[in-house]
Each structure stands twice: as structure tokens, then as C-alpha cells.
């Protein structure tokens, strides 16, 4: 189901106050990121002022993943999540639309929803009892007679996110009501997403519930790895690869050093994947379930031999996925040194129960919070962050030069691609990051 919900932005000038200048100070980060030279200033991962500016200029204006539309089957179905550090509620209203509203009562600011997900008729603040309907409208105020005639309920509804759009079941939202459409922001990345999310004509759904865990590390470390980094696999995951290989000795050399491609674009999106005519799903029941000839007709030969199975991807800024095990996840920022990972398992609707179970268990075994690969990644990010505040460490430039200048157009693959072992998608992620960090956002135009 494809839908677009356009909501009214929070009122400007009405029921607002004027802040003194200087509270939200922005600064130029141009010298801290050199994507053309492949150089990054280490402080972008640890400086609290940079982190605060990210909230204002990255997360307040980018398309952010909210949920999968299978989580909203009936009116009143809701899911609580975050856009940056802002708590929001996504809920299907009685018209079948999905609204996203700020989870903050307009009276004293307490959350009006504390449950992770569920079904409801309205949201009621447990502090003073202000209640809001599925569109965020204020519908009940206890002791309302004590307010004078200037108080009007319609002016004090929950702040609504003005743009909510979906692509292949993935629901995104954006605080900028004038932002380019989601599909334009995805651009050529849609072709790579389709290889994961459009294999089944019946669509996809997510396993009920969300797995959550907290890691020490800046959110960008995780986002960049899923966009650009196949390089770490044979080193960081060596022991896991040995355990999962049939011989117990790890994959054969031709598999471990498999050739592939890496896509990236000007929006900061990136995906890497091996390319091989015998690419397959790792879980045996899943591999046996798929009709690869059918998929070649539904998608394309290039998608089947590339991003259909093994690979990694990030939609800028903080949504990532792994096609081989159906894992999608968000790297929620929780300060410059901490992130909270929220992960779902995506399944094709036509999958028989035994195949769906095999995929779900394989996902947990490999990229669940205690998964054999996930543990390695979390350790790496935490190690990168452990000494990030040290003086000399902060003043030591990082190298992102692998594959510099190798991106080109290749027949059959939309956009520009480089070799699999490359930092190209990482460089473009930080190029986009630098662009947004240095450009006034929609909310700054009204100061």
C-alpha cells in the first residue's frame, strides 16, 4: 500500500515565544570533512556541539525511517519511536492514514504515550489528563472551565510531522513540509531497495515486536559501515565465518575475496554487495524456497546476482538493512557517544511458516543483539569511541581513501558504483552530512 499523508506543521508565531539569538549556535564544518581527499576530522564523532547541530540540521530535515506499514493494520494501531532524539508516535487514523505526532503533551510536555506499541482510541497524558485523538487533536481537558475564553482546544493539539510517505512498505517521515518527495530522496537507491523489498508480489511484513539494544559509539559509525564497509568482514567476522562454514575453517578464498560493487549517491545513500551468478541466501530453507528464475523476471539479472542476497545498505542518515537475513534497523542517536539500535525482521508475505521461521532464527543468530556478527560490530564501534575524547586522538585525521576516484557508471546498475572494497559510499555519506550541517534548515528561516 502506497500512501502520502500531509499534515499541518506546528504553528509559527501563534502560541509560541521568541527566544534570544545564540541559543542554537551553528558553525561551519567544511574543514572537518574532505570527501574529495578522503579525510575526516575525528571530532565529528565525539563533539557535543556537533551532535547538537546534527539534531537541528540533519534529523530535523531528513527523511527518517519510522516503521513498516504492516505494523498498522487497523485504526488506532500505534508505534512509538524517535526522530533523532524527538519522541514521536505513528498511528493509523480512522481514514486509514498514518499520522506521526510529537509524543509531548502541549500542557507540561510529558509523554502522552508510554507503551511501545498497541491499539488505542486516544492518547491521554497521565499528568493532568489532557487527551488527544488519532489525528493529534486535543479532545478533552479536565476542568476546562477554569480557562478563559481565549483558550481554544484546536490551537493546542499535538505537534504533527508534516510529511509521512512510504516506499515498498517502509514508512518515513520528515519535519520539513517542503522537503523533496521521499522517492526523489531515495533516487537510484530504490533499485537496490527493490532487490530486497520487492521480491514477493504479495509484499512484505515484519515479525511482531522490535529488538532493541544500546551500544557505546556514535550513530554515524554504524550508518557508514552499513553504507560502505565490506572491508571489515574477513577480519572482524573471521571467527563467525569459521563457525558458519561447512568445514569449520571459514569460507574458501574465492568466496572470502569475492568481487562486487558499491553504490552511493549525492543524497548520502549507499549499498555494497558481492556480484556472482550463484549468489544465494545463507539459510538453506530460504535458499530452497526462492525461485531465482522467477526473480530474474520480476526484478533483473543484475539485481539477482547482486543486491538480492548478500550485501549491506544505508538510507541516509540512519536507516540500514541486510537483505540476506531480512534485517532492517535504525541507529537512534542517544548523545555523541551512544546509540540505541532498533531492529526488525522483514519477511515476504508468501513465505510458508517453516521458511519464515528459518529466516527469523537466522537473523537472530547472526544480527540479533547477541548475534555472532552483531557482537563483532558493536565491539568495533565501542572501541572506536572509547578513546574518542583524548586530545591527540581528536586531533588525528582519519583515512577514508580506499577506492578514491573509482566510482563510475556501469551498465545494468543505476547511478555510480565503485568496487566492493571502497570507502566511496562513506565519503558520499559525509559529503551529504557536511552539506546539511552547513545549510540553514526550514526552522531557521522563521527566526
From TrEMBL:
Pfam families attached to this UniProt entry: Rieske, Ring_hydroxyl_A
PROSITE patterns xref list: RIESKE, RING_HYDROXYL_ALPHA
Gene3D superfamilies: Naphthalene 1,2-dioxygenase Alpha Subunit, Chain A, domain 1, Rieske [2Fe-2S] iron-sulphur domain
Keywords associated with the record: 2Fe-2S, Aromatic hydrocarbons catabolism, Dioxygenase, Iron, Iron-sulfur, Metal-binding, NAD, Oxidoreductase
Residue intervals of the Rieske domain: 63-161
Annotated GO MF terms: 2 iron, 2 sulfur cluster binding; dioxygenase activity; iron ion binding; monooxygenase activity; oxidoreductase activity, acting on paired donors, with incorporation or reduction of molecular oxygen
Family membership noted in the UniProt record: Belongs to the bacterial ring-hydroxylating dioxygenase alpha subunit family.
Name under which the protein is recorded: Aromatic ring-hydroxylating dioxygenase subunit alpha
Native species: Corynebacterium lizhenjunii
Amino acid at each position: 500500500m502506497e500512501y502520502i499523508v500531509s499534515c499541518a506543521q506546528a504553528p509559527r508565531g501563534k502560541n509560541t515565544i521568541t527566544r534570544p539569538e545564540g541559543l542554537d549556535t551553528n558553525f561551519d564544518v567544511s574543514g572537518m570533512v574532505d570527501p574529495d581527499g578522503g579525510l575526516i576530522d575525528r571530532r565529528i564523532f565525539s563533539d557535543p556541539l556537533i551532535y547538537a547541530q546534527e539534531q537541528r540540521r540533519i534529523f530535523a530535515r531528513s527523511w527518517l525511517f519510522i516503521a513498516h506499514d504492516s505494523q498498522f493494520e487497523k485504526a488506532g494501531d500505534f508505534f512509538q519511536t524517535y526522530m533523532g532524539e524527538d519522541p514521536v508516535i505513528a498511528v493509523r487514523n480512522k481514514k486509514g492514514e498514518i499520522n506521526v505526532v510529537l509524543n509531548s503533551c502541549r500542557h507540561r510536555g510529558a509523554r502522552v504515550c508510554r507503551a511501545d506499541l498497541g491499539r488505542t482510541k486516544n492518547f491521554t497524558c497521565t499528568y493532568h489528563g489532557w487527551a488527544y485523538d488519532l489525528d493529534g487533536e486535543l479532545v478533552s481537558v479536565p476542568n476546562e472551565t477554569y480557562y478563559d475564553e481565549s483558550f481554544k482546544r484546536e490551537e493546542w493539539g499535538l505537534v504533527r510531522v508534516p510529511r509521512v510517505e512510504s516506499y515498498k512498505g517502509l514508512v518515513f517521515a520528515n519535519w520539513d513540509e517542503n522537503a523533496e518527495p521521499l522517492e526523489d530522496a531515495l533516487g537510484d537507491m530504490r533499485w537496490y531497495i527493490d532487490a530486497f523489498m520487492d521480491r514477493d508480489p504479495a509484499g512484505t511484513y515484519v515479525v511482531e515486536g522490535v529488538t532493541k539494544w544500546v551500544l557505546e559509539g556514535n550513530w554515524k559509525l554504524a550508518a557508514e559501515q552499513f553504507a560502505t564497509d565490506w572491508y571489515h568482514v574477513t577480519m572482524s567476522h573471521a571467527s563467525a565465518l569459521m563457525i558458519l562454514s561447512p568445514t569449520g575453517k571459514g569460507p574458501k578464498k574465492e568466496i572470502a575475496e569475492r568481487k562486487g560493487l558499491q553504490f552511493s549517491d549525492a543524497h548520502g545513500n549507499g549499498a555494497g554487495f558481492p556480484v556472482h551468478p550463484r549468489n544465494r541466501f545463507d539459510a538453506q530453507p530460504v535458499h530452497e524456497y526462492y525461485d531465482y528464475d522467477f526473480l530474474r523476471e520480476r526484478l533483473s539479472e543484475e539485481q539477482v546476482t547482486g543486491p538480492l542476497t548478500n550485501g549491506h545498505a544505508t538510507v541516509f542518515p540512519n536507516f540500514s538493512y541486510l537483505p540476506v537475513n531480512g534485517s532492517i534497523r535504525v541507529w537512534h542517536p542517544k548523545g555523541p557517544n551512544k546509540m540505541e539500535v532498533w531492529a526488525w525482521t522483514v519477511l515476504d508475505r508468501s513465505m510458508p511458516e517453516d521458511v519464515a521461521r528459518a529466516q527469523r532464527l537466522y537473523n537472530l543468530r547472526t544480527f540479533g543483539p547477541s548475534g555472532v556478527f552483531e557482537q563483532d560490530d558493536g565491539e568495533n564501534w565501542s572501541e572506536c569511541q572509547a578513546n574518542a575524547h583524548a586530545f591527540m586522538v581528536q586531533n588525528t585525521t582519519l583515512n577514508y581513501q580506499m577506492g578514491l576516484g573509482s566510482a563510475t557508471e556501469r551498465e545494468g546498475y543505476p547511478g555510480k558504483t565503485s568496487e566492493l572494497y571502497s570507502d566511496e559510499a562513506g565519503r558520499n555519506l559525509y559529503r551529504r552530512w557536511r552539506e546539511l550541517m552547513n545549510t540553514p534548515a526550514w526552522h531557521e528561516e522563521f527566526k
